[in-house]
Amino acid sequence: MATLFHLSEILKFAIHKEQESKELYEHLACETKNDELKILFTTLAQEEIQHEKFYAGMMKLADQRLFAPESEEFSGYMQELITTSRTVNKISDFNDLAMVLNYAIAREKDSILFYSGLLNYVPRADREGIYAIIREEVKHAAQLTRIKNELLKNL
C-alpha cells in the first residue's frame, strides 16, 4: 500500500530544506574571499528565502487532506527523498572550494528531484509556483557548476 502524506508534512519539509540552503549560502558568502562568489552565494541565499516564503504561503492554505501518489513505487521514491535528504553539516575545509561547490550542487539537484515529486501532491493551482522554483533550482545548479568548472580550468 502506498504511503499517504499530509500536504502540510511535505511543505514543512520543503520549508526546512529552504532554510538549510539559505543558511549554507549565507555561511559560504561570509567565508569566501572571492567577490564574484560572495555575490553569487548572497543571491542564492536571498532566492532561498523567497522559496521558503512561497511554501509558507502554501502551508497556510494547506488542509489536512491525505495525498496518495499513483503508485507504491512513487510513494517509496518520495519517502526515500525525505529520509535520505542531505542535511547541512559544518563544512570544515573552505580551502577546498571544489568540494564545497560539489556539495552545494548536489543539494540543488536533491531539491530539483524533491520538488518535481512534490508536483504530484499539490493542487493544480499551486503547480506553476513549484515549476518556477524548480527552474530557479536548475539555474542555481547551473551557476554553481559554471563556477566550479571555471575554478577547475584555472587550476
3D architecture notes:
The model has no long low-confidence stretch (mean pLDDT 78). The chain contains five helices and two strands; from the N terminus they run E-H-H-E-H-H-H. The chain has a single domain (5-153), classed as Up-down Bundle (Ferritin), CATH 1.20.1260. With 155 residues, the protein is an all-alpha fold. The relative contact order is 0.16. Strands 1-2 form a two-stranded antiparallel ribbon.
Keywords summarizing the entry:
Ferritin, mainly alpha, 5 helices, two-stranded antiparallel sheet, 155 residues
Question: How would you concisely characterize the structure shown here?
Answer:
The chain has helices at residues 7-31, 35-61, 72-83, 97-118, 124-153; strands at residues 5-6, 66-67.
How do the helices and strands line up, and which of them pair or pack?
Layout lengths: L4 E2 H25 L3 H27 L4 E2 L4 H12 L13 H22 L5 H30 L2
Antiparallel strand pairs: 1-2
By CATH, the architecture is named Up-down Bundle
CATH homologous superfamily descriptor = Ferritin, core subunit, four-helix bundle
Number of helices: 5
> Could you give the order of the helices and strands?
EHHEHHH
* The level-1 CATH class: Mainly Alpha
Biggest beta sheet summary: 2 strands, antiparallel
Determine Rg (CA atoms, Å).
Answer: 17 Å
The termini sit apart by 52 Å
Strand coverage percent: under 5%
**Shape type:** elongated
Number of domains: 1
